Amino acid sequence: MVYDRERFAREDAVYAEHKRAVAAGEKRVLRKTSTGELHSYPADEIGFTPGGGQAQVSTWWGMAIVCSVLGLLFLGSLVMLIVTLLQGHGEWGILLPLLMGAFGVVYTFRLSRDEYLATQLRKLRGSPKPSSSGSVDINLLELGQNRGDQPGASR
């Protein structure tokens, strides 16, 4: 990372404003944007934060696809349960995967819905898109703190 005095000044200003808003009782989330700038988002502008795994979903429509796949698996499990019950075999072992599938559908649907609403609010308010990592090192943001990549700073 290259030292950028103006960028650090902007980040300090955003962090100070974020601290004032939180102290005033607002629910805010401090995140990096997709361009790397720091931004203080109102809580309703953040849908979900993708995990740190290799393959991850970061958009509402991507989560809607996951929800659809889980829904198809749920329906397939339900059909298997109904067919075995109609044949007179009491195969109740399918109930756990069936319940887990139902939970997965509801959970991913809610994530998709929340991200869609957050995306619409960000567009309406003109807020930048958050980064997909979602991590901000608060320790580096204390106002006036020397950062390790500043000229003359020891490591």
Automatic annotation (TrEMBL):
<keyword id="KW-1133">Transmembrane helix</keyword>
<feature type="transmembrane region" description="Helical">
    <location>
        <begin position="92"/>
        <end position="112"/>
    </location>
</feature>
<feature type="transmembrane region" description="Helical">
    <location>
        <begin position="60"/>
        <end position="86"/>
    </location>
</feature>
<keyword id="KW-0472">Membrane</keyword>
<protein>
    <recommendedName>
        <fullName>DUF3040 family protein</fullName>
    </recommendedName>
</protein>
<keyword id="KW-0812">Transmembrane</keyword>
<feature type="region of interest" description="Disordered">
    <location>
        <begin position="125"/>
        <end position="155"/>
    </location>
</feature>
